[in-house]
# Entry
Amino acid sequence: MREWILATLTVLFFVGAPLSALSGEAGSGSLHISDPWARAMLPGQPTGGAYMTIRNDGEEADRLISVSSPAAGKVEIHTMTMQDDVMIMRPLEDGLEIPAGESVALEPGGFHLMFMQVEEPFAEGETVPVTLEFEKAGAVSLDLPVLPASTGRGMDAHEH
Ligand SMILES: [Cu+2]
# Structure
């Protein structure tokens, strides 16, 4: 009888694992990524932006150190700040820290991923594969749904 219960629990455990992949969150260990998306690009536009929220449920800080995608020659992690009424954007040389117990939002007007040297402009309705490399959690791969170019506009005045 006890063996039967153990076997049943084991089966439930393994069945439970893939179900979590359907919840709309990607992650590795204590990191959870939600609401990922990329902005649709205009024909001929060489750079595109992508956004998401990264939550760290762990006990120690982690850091997004690099990003790559087969859809871009290179992907940078950018910050955007206001300086004398002008939006200044620059790459984060040391990556983006995700403090323990906190969420960091990459959103229009703030932190974002910048896809450079994009050959095929992202089109609404497609998905863009991306791999995020974290210092501690390692690589996390996900697909970014491409949303209309107008999404979140107004907060986001930058053009490359
Ligand atoms: Cu940028």
Summary: The first strand starts at residue 26 and ends at 28. The chain has one domain: 26-147. The radius of gyration is 18 Å.
